[in-house]
């Protein structure tokens, strides 16, 4: 299991802090222990995108395969969203530099 660790102090983040941090699309992620600012790596963004696209295709495949009704499809969509939200913090990798604006 990948635990989010601060690059400065080396201490691990709690799952709750990593979950809240993973909901921020861009910007700084502050270490709860030492206050050092970090950014998500390019690899984190790639894994997040792959996870989201995979969840969408699984959703569409199962909706078509089982011909789900709207209420069932919405329930399943919420279920998939929750799974994605709780898997997301496991994919966070931190860097000292912001990768979104570097070219």
Automatic annotation (TrEMBL):
<protein>
    <recommendedName>
        <fullName>Cxxc_20_cxxc protein</fullName>
    </recommendedName>
</protein>
<keyword id="KW-1133">Transmembrane helix</keyword>
<dbReference type="InterPro" id="IPR026369">
    <property type="entry name" value="CxxC_20_CxxC"/>
</dbReference>
<keyword id="KW-0812">Transmembrane</keyword>
<keyword id="KW-0472">Membrane</keyword>
<feature type="transmembrane region" description="Helical">
    <location>
        <begin position="70"/>
        <end position="92"/>
    </location>
</feature>
């Amino acid at each position: 299991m990948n635990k989010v660790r601060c690059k400065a102090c080396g201490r691990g983040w709690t799952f709750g802090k990593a979950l809240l941090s993973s909901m921020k699309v861009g910007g700084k992620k502050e270490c709860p222990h030492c206050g050092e600012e970090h950014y998500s790596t390019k690899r984190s963004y790639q894994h997040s995108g792959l996870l989201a696209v995979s969840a969408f295709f699984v959703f569409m495949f199962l909706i078509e395969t089982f011909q789900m009704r709207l209420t069932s499809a919405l329930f399943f969509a919420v279920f998939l969203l929750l799974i994605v939200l709780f898997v997301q913090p496991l994919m966070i990798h931190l860097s000292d530099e912001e990768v979104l604006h570097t070219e």
